[in-house]
Amino acid sequence: MLLKSCSSLSTKVTWKMNPQELVEKHKLLECIQCGMCTGSCPVAKKANLNIRRYMREVSASGRLTIHPPNELWSCTTCSTCGIRCPKDLNPYEFLIDIRSMAVEEGQIAPTLRDALESIFKNGNPWGRIRGKRTEWSQDLKVKHVSQGAEVLYYVGCTLAYDPRIQNVAKSLAACFEKAQLNFGVLGEEENCCGSEVYGMGEKGLFDFLVEENMKVFNKYGVKQVVTNCPHGFNVFKNRYNQTSFEAQHHSQLLAKLIDENRLNPSKELNKKVIYHDPCYLGKQNNIYDEPRKVIETIKGITLLEFDRSRSRSLCCEGGGGRMWVDIPGPRLAEIRVKEAVEVGAEILAVACPFCMLTMEDAVKTTGNEGKIQIMDIAELLALAL
Ligand code: SF4
Ligand code: SF4
Questions:
Q1: Could you tell me which CATH class the domain 110-256 is placed in?
Q2: Residue 267 beta carbon below 6 angstroms from any ligand 2 atom
C-alpha cells in the first residue's frame, strides 16, 4: 500500500498511497466534510491534528502530508471524533491505520519504539522485568487462577509495576476478599493486553499478544476476566474477537457486588468527590453509572460532576500511546484538575490507571498539591469497608 516515504521523523512527510483499501475500510467517501470530528478533537489545536483533512486528502488525492511526531502521535484514541460524526464514521480507526504505515516505515518516536520493544521482550511497556510483575501482591495472599478461581483478576502492566498504582490493585484485591469473591491472578504468566499496541498501530505485535494471551487463558479455562484498566477491558471485550470469556471493568463488578449485598461500606468518608469519566470506559463502552454507584454507596460522600461529564468528558491525554510521547502545549489533565479544584472537590476519583498518572502529574504541575487528591474508585471503596 505504501509506495513512498520520507526518512526524517522531525519534518513533514508526504505519503503517496493506493487509497482504495483505506477508502473502503473507513467509508471515506461517505464523509460530508462537516468538520465535527476535528471540531470535537481535544488535541486538534494543540497538535495541529486535522483528522477531517487527513481523510479528505487520502480519498481525494491518495496522498497525505503530515508532521509525524506532533500530528500523528498526538491522537489519544479517545474516540470523540467517532461519537460526534453524523455519518457514523470512525476517524480515529482510520488514523490508527495511518500509524500502522508509519510504524512499518520506522516513522516512530524513540520513546514509543522503546515501549513496543519492552512489550515484546518483557510483556510490559515500562521496561520492567517479568519477574517483578507480582511485586504488588508480595504482602497479600492472592491465589493463582489455576487454583480453582472463578474470576481472573487481570492486573495489567501499570497496576502491576507502578509504585503508586499498585495501591489500586491492592485495594481492589481487598474489596474482592471482603466480598468473598473467588478470584485468582496469572502472576508472572500475565502479559501486556495489547490495547496501547493496537492504538499505536503495531498490528503484528498486537496479533502476537492476542495469540499468547489466549493460549494462557485457554490453558486455565478462563471464563470471566476483570480489569481495573478500561483499556484492558476494552481490548478484551472489543478487539480480541473471542467468545470463550467475558470481560468486565472493576466498576461493573464492584457495582454488582454492592447490589448483591456482598460489599457494604460502613465507614463514613466526609468528602466532596468529583468523578472523571475515562474515554475507554465511557465514550467507548457506555459505562457511566456503575463507577458513580460505587462512589455514591459510600456514606458521607458528596458526588460532584464536571460540566463536561459522561460522553462529553474531556480526555486526560493518556491513551493511544500518549503515555510514551509528550506533545508540547497545555495538558488536558491540567484543565481537568483546575476544574475539579474550582468546584470545590477534595478528591478527583478516577477508574483508569492512565487517568490516575496524568491527573497526579497535573496536580503537581498546576500547584494544587495538598488541595486535591487523586483516588481510584476501588481505593475509595476499600477505605470505607
Ligand atoms: S480519537 Fe480523540 S484525539 Fe484522536 S482524532 Fe479522534 S477526537 Fe482527536
Ligand atoms: S465528522 Fe464524520 S462526516 Fe464530518 S468531517 Fe468528520 S468524518 Fe467527515
A1: alpha beta
A2: no
Higher pLDDT, 271 or 20: 271
pLDDT grade for 312, boundaries at 50, 70 and 90: very high
Mean pLDDT of 298-315: 98
d(CA 376, CA 38): 31
Ligand at shortest distance from the CA of 93: 1
Q: Is 35 in the pocket of ligand 2 (CB under 6 A)?
A: yes
320 close to 200: Cβ distance less than 8 angstroms: yes
Q: pTM for the complete prediction?
A: 0.95
How do residues 181-233 score in pLDDT, each as one tens digit? 999 999 999 999 999 999 999 999 999 999 999 999 999 999 999 999 999 99
Nearest CA to ligand 1 atom 3: 75
Q: Among 1.10.3210, 1.10.150, 1.10.1060, 1.10.760, what is the CATH number of 2-104? A: 1.10.1060
Nearest alpha carbon, ligand 1 atom 2: 78
Cross-strand bridge partners of residue 248: 226
2-104 and 265-384: identical CATH topology: no
The finding on whether 257 has its CB within 6 A of some atom of ligand 2 is no
The pLDDT value given to residue 9: 52
Nearest CA to ligand 2 atom 8: 31
Distance 373 CA to ligand 1 centre (A): 28
Distance 331 CA to ligand 2 centre (A): 25
27, 34, 38, 75: residue to mutate for ligand 2 pocket, most atoms within 8 A of CB: 34
Rounded Cα–Cα distance for residues 96 and 107 (Å):
13
Q: Are 60 and 87 in contact (CB under 8 A)?
A: no
Superfamily (CATH) of domain 265-384 = AF0625-like (3.40.50.10700)
Residue of the CA atom closest to atom 1 of ligand 2: 85
| Grid cell listed for 361 | 502529574
Q: Are 249 and 287 in contact (CB under 8 A)?
A: yes
Q: Sorting pLDDT into bands at 50, 70 and 90, what band is 4? A: very low
Report how far residue 294's alpha carbon sits from residue 377's, in angstroms, rounded to the nearest whole number.
7
Rounded to the nearest angstrom, the distance between the alpha carbon of 86 and the centre of ligand 2 is: 7
